[in-house]
Amino acid sequence: MVPETELQYFNLSTPDNGTLFILLSMFIAFGYVLAASVSDAMVVEYAQREPVAIRGRIQTAIYTVRTLAGSLAYLVSAFGLNGRNYGGSFSFALSPNAPYGIALAPCVLVVLSTIFVLVEKKSEAVSFPLWWGRFWESLKSRVLWQVCLFRFLSNAFNGVNTTATLPVSTYWAGVEPLNDALSDVIGNLLFAAVLVIVGKWGLNWNWRWTIAAGTLGMIVVDGFVVFLTIWDVVRNQWFFNGVGLAEQFPYGLRFIVSTYVAVEIADKGNEGATYGLISTVSNLAGPFASIFYKYVNSYFKVRQNDIKSDTLEVRWDVTYVYFISYGSKIASLFWLFLPATSLPPQVEKVVLHFDPGLITTINNVVSPFDGIVYKYVAWFFKVSS
C-alpha cells in the first residue's frame, strides 16, 4: 500500500501509455549504446598492445572494474527500494524519482572525466574511401563472418528465457527486493572473480570447450534450483537466489571468452567499427530471442495470476517453458563457429568469396524470425492501445 503522501510521485496512468514510455526508452538506450561502443573500441585498442602470451588481461581488468562498479547500483535498490510499497519489509523507502537522481550523478562525473581526464592521441583524418576500403577487406575475412554468425545465432538461442522467471521468484520463492538486490551484488562479485581467474590462468584455454562447459553449467545449476521451486520441494528465497549464484561462474566463462575473439580479429584503424559490428550483431540476438520466447510463452499458463493459483496444470506449464528455454540454450552449442584458441584468428584472416549458398543459408536461418517479429509487434500494439 502506497502512503498518500507519496501518491504524487506515481503516474497512475502509465499502463495506458505504455507504448510511449517504451519508445522513449528506446531513444534513451541509444545514448548508452553509443557510449558503450566507443568505450569498447578503446578496450580493443589497448588490449591489442599487449603481448600475445598475455593478451586479454587488460580487457579482463576493464570488465572486472565495470562489473564491480555496477554493484553499487544494486545497493541503492537493496536498501532504498525495500519498503512495503515495493514489496519489501523495510518501514522506509526512497521515492520513485530518487533512484533516477542518484543514477544521474555518476553520469555527470563520466562526462566531466571524459572531457578533462581522458587522453586521446590525435591522429590524421583518413578519407572515407580509404577507410571503407580497409574495412571492406576486414569484412571479407572468413573469421569475421564466423564470429558474427556465432555471436548472433549462439546468443539468439542462448537468450531464450521464460516470462515465468519473475512471477516464480516473487510468488513461489518469496524473494524480497532486498534479497534480490543483495544477490545481484554478490553475483557481480562472483562474476568479477571469474573474470580475474580467466585473466590469470585461462587465457590459453580452448574457447569452444570453455563456452560449452559454461553453458551446460548454467543449465544444470539453474535447473536444479528452478525445478525444486516449481514442484514445491524447496521454496525459500535464500535457496532460490543463493544456490542460483553458482551459475555466475559458467556465465562469466561464456562472457569473457566470447569477447576475447573480437580483440584478435580487429584491424588497426578499424577497432571501433569491427568491435561495433560484432557487438551490434550480438545485441540484435537479444530482441529476437525475447520476441520468440514471449510469443511461445503466451500459449502457456505462466502469467502472474496463473502462478498465484499454483495448480498442477500451472506447474506443468511452467516446467514446459523452462524445458523449451534449456533446450534452446543447449541448441546454442551447435553454433560455436569459433577458433579453438587466440592464435588462429590472426592466421585465418583470409578473404571470403561470397558464395550464394552461404547467403542462402544465412537467409534461411534468419527468415523464420520475420513472421514471429511481425506477429509480436502487432500483438504488442494491440494490447497497448
Write a compact overview of the structure shown:
The chain is mainly alpha-helical. The protein contains 16 helices and no strands. The chain is globular and about 60 Å long.
Could you walk me through the main structural features you see in this protein, from its secondary elements to its overall organization?
The chain has 385 residues and is mainly α. It has one domain (18-116, 142-354). It contains 16 helices and no strands. It has helices at residues 18-47, 57-80, 98-116, 128-139, 142-158, 165-172, 177-201, 207-230, 237-242, 248-265, 271-297, 304-309, 312-331, 344-347, 356-366, 368-384. α8 (207-230) packs antiparallel against α10 (248-265). The longest helix has 30 residues, at 18-47.
